[in-house]
Design goal:
The complex is a heterodimer of chains A (291) and B (380). Chain A has 291 residues and is α/β, with parallel strands linked by helices. Helices cover 35% and strands 22% of the residues of chain A. Chain A folds into two domains: 111 residues, 3-Layer(aba) Sandwich (Rossmann fold), CATH 3.40.50; 152 residues, 3-Layer(aba) Sandwich (Rossmann fold), CATH 3.40.50.261. Chain A is built from nine helices and 14 strands. In chain A, the strands form two sheets. Chain A has a seven-stranded mixed beta sheet with strand order 3-4-2-1-5-6-7, with helices on both faces. The model of chain A has no long low-confidence stretch (mean pLDDT 95). In chain B, helix 10 links the parallel strand 16 and strand 17. Classes of the chains: A alpha/beta (291), B alpha+beta (380). Chains A and B meet through helix 4 and helix 5 of A and helix 8 of B.
């Protein structure tokens, strides 16, 4: 599967643009330079939101404006339908911001995406950004500066925190992707590491993980096997988490003895990644690695 | 949301999974009547949302209705891990030839439902998986095609069953997957599935429903809060009722953040500087001043908390709203517990101005603020 992310030419449709979140973030994306060409809310076709035309269906938006990617702010109960509609209309990538989607719906969504070859970012993600060029997401605009660090994160605000440190170190970011905080999401670290390995603009990667699942351990195996050769600095949240308790994210839970921060940090350290004791250390380690 | 055994069995029964005759009882009298009706040797089982009930004496046999009365009386009067037993399941006692494990779970890495099965049932399946992984059969279920009869039969074959037994086991597996799918299960299992002379019977039942899907299962809403009794502390129950994402911890520094990752990182950073977090509270995105105020009040009211650390990275959450919430809560409590605030992002200047006006200091970095919070908690 060829993974599609974002660049300055990506033409974006905002599904759920008439809602509070959709409207607010459509405006922030336009400020950032994203080509937001249309919005979709079934039943609201013909309206405008801050100058962006609204359509009833994604197909219509595509016919009129040639949009090729979608960002979804539709409430959890309607998110699966919205995402399927986007994929079947040929949108790629499809970025699902919505939090609280039942895992059964996400399983179906991701399976269909695989069948159609669509890249799905999320759900429950802050989105993705190409620094100072374009963003499909809800991250604060001022934090990012064009540079050479790629970021992969399961969390939102912690990702901004670390991006701000990277920017303050004078490094800046290339492309940053929020995987999403749910147990099942469209992308994993390995798929993105493969992409970053080939991306000429990315010289190093910040990997931001948290307790739950074994995606970080798998990423570590991939790095250790030589699949990713650029410097990696990582931060894993949840060292103080209690087993069996969900820590905010639906996916952030230590089950039995699996999914602990320690296991993830050890695996990544073993693969040669620098491990931050605190978020700022990630930026410092990258600064050191990149000279 | 974890269903109790009898609630899960009610669901299993609707889907045609074979079960022994049973009835729920809240009193010894009801238990005796149920046993008389079943008219077979009985097992009485405590209905409680925590594990280890067998070892705690919550599962006992009885041969007559009178014995059932006595046993039920005993179990209904006991507590398991501090939880009072309000109900027992009175069930026909099975003559066991062999025990099998069947489960359907969400496999995060494969992004699908997966069958877990083992011919070594009746024991802790995690232990079997850890010690003898070759005894676990895994089968990913294609989300778009579902679990077909031949998929289920293949699993039964791998457990060592052929002919009619394979078909019966395969049928139960398909039904269990339908339960998982239609009930939005995060996990559903039969442990053990008992092989008797008359075929397979589900002796126990577990069904954990995805909290995000409860809007599709209105019938469970009434029992939602109650279902967390074994899992959550009283303070966590209170927070859940207020719709706050809160985990109670052992330390003396209250923590409030926005976003799960950042809040966890805040806890970890406090620990790094020698402090101990008293809780995890994630405001989520876009919290209003009122919601922030409620959260601050909730944490400050905790007697163990000596200092509060609020860490907000403004995106959809606004720093001025955060400041208003903090000031409002503090005004309400008339409290003088020290508060450390770190804020950055949307409306940061206004937020800081409001806080400074109310005599609350702010810090620019999480690391500084964490050190400050640790110092303050030690001083109190």
């Amino acid at each position: 599967m060829k993974m599609k992310l974002i660049n300055k030419d990506t033409k974006v449709v905002v599904q759920g643009i008439t809602g509070t979140q959709g409207r607010f973030h459509a405006a922030r994306m336009k400020e950032y330079g994203t080509k937001v060409v249309a919005g979709v809310t079934p039943g609201r076709g013909g309206e405008e939101v801050d100058g962006t035309p609204v359509y009833d269906t994604v197909i219509e938006a595509k016919e009129r404006h040639g949009c090729d990617a979608s960002i979804i702010f539709v409430p959890a109960g309607g998110a699966l339908d919205a995402a399927l509609e986007a994929m079947e209309a040929g949108m790629d990538p499809v970025v699902v911001i919505t939090e609280g989607i039942p895992v059964r719906d996400t399983i179906e969504l991701v399976a269909r995406a695989k069948q159609l070859g669509t890249t799905v970012v999320g759900p429950n993600t802050p989105g993705l950004i190409k620094a100072r060029e374009s963003k499909m997401g809800i991250m604060p605009n001022q934090v990012f500066k064009r540079g050479s660090v790629g970021i992969i994160s399961r969390s939102g605000t912690l990702f901004y925190e670390i991006a701000a440190h990277i920017t303050n170190q004078g490094l800046g970011e290339s492309t940053c992707v929020g995987l999403g905080g749910d147990p099942v999401v469209g992308l994993d670290y390995i798929e993105l590491l493969k992409w970053f390995q080939k991306d000429p603009e990315t010289k190093a990667v910040a990997l931001i993980g948290e307790i739950g699942g074994d995606a970080e351990e798998k990423a570590a195996d991939f790095i250790a096997s030589g699949g990713f050769t650029k410097p990696v600095a990582a931060y894993i949240a949840g060292r103080t988490a209690v087993p069996g308790k969900r820590m905010g994210h639906a996916g952030a839970i230590i089950q039995g003895s699996a999914g602990t921060a320690e296991s993830k940090m050890n695996a990544l350290r073993g693969a040669g990644a620098a491990i931050g004791e605190q978020p700022v250390d990630v930026a410092k380690a990258l600064k050191k690695a990149l000279g | 949301m974890k269903l109790l055994e009898y609630e899960a069995k009610e669901v299993f029964r609707r889907y045609g999974i074979p079960l022994g005759a049973s009835a729920v009882a809240s009193t010894p009298e009801e238990a005796r009547d149920a046993a008389a009706k079943i008219a077979k040797p009985i097992v009485v089982k405590a209905q409680v949302g925590v594990g280890g009930r067998g070892k705690a004496g919550g599962i006992k046999p009885a041969d007559t209705p009178e014995q059932t009365y006595e046993v039920a009386k005993q179990i209904l009067g006991m507590k398991i891990k501090d939880l009072p037993i309000r109900k027992v399941l009175v069930e026909e006692r099975l003559s066991i030839q062999h025990e099998v494990y069947l489960g359907v779970i969400v496999d995060r890495a494969s992004r699908c439902y997966t069958i877990l099965a083992s011919s070594e049932g009746g024991v802790n399946i995690e232990e079997v998986a850890a010690k003898t992984p070759e005894k676990i059969v895994r089968n990913n279920i294609d989300p778009l095609r579902g679990l077909r009869s031949y998929n289920a039969n293949n699993v039964a074959k791998r457990l060592g069953y052929g002919g009619k037994k394979m078909q019966q086991l395969g049928d139960i597996l398909q039904k269990l997957y339908r339960v998982a799918y239609e009930m939005d299960a995060e996990l559903t299992e039969i442990n053990p599935l008992v092989e008797t002379a008359d075929g397979f019977i589900a002796a126990d039942a577990r069904l954990n429903v995805d909290n995000n899907a409860l809007y599709r299962h209105k019938e469970l809403e009434a029992k939602y809060l109650e279902s967390f009794e074994g899992e959550l502390t009283p303070r966590e129950m209170e927070a859940r009722a207020m719709d706050l994402t809160y985990v109670e911890l052992n330390g003396d520094i209250g923590i409030i953040g926005n976003g799960a990752g950042l809040t966890m990182a805040t806890l970890d950073t406090v620990m790094l500087y020698g402090g101990h977090a008293g809780n995890f509270l994630d405001l989520g995105g876009g919290a209003s001043p009122d919601r922030i105020g409620k959260a601050v009040e909730f944490v400050l009211k905790d007697n163990r908390v000596k200092a509060l650390f609020v860490n907000v990275l403004g995106g959809i959450t606004r720093c001025d709203d955060t400041a208003k919430g903090i000031i409002e809560a503090r005004g309400k409590l008339g409290d003088n517990k020290p508060i450390v605030v770190r804020m950055m992002g949307t409306n940061e200047e206004e937020g800081k101005r409001l806080l400074h006006g109310a005599g609350i200091e702010t810090n620019d970095t999480m690391e500084e603020a964490a050190q400050k919070a640790v110092q303050l908690a030690k001083r109190v």
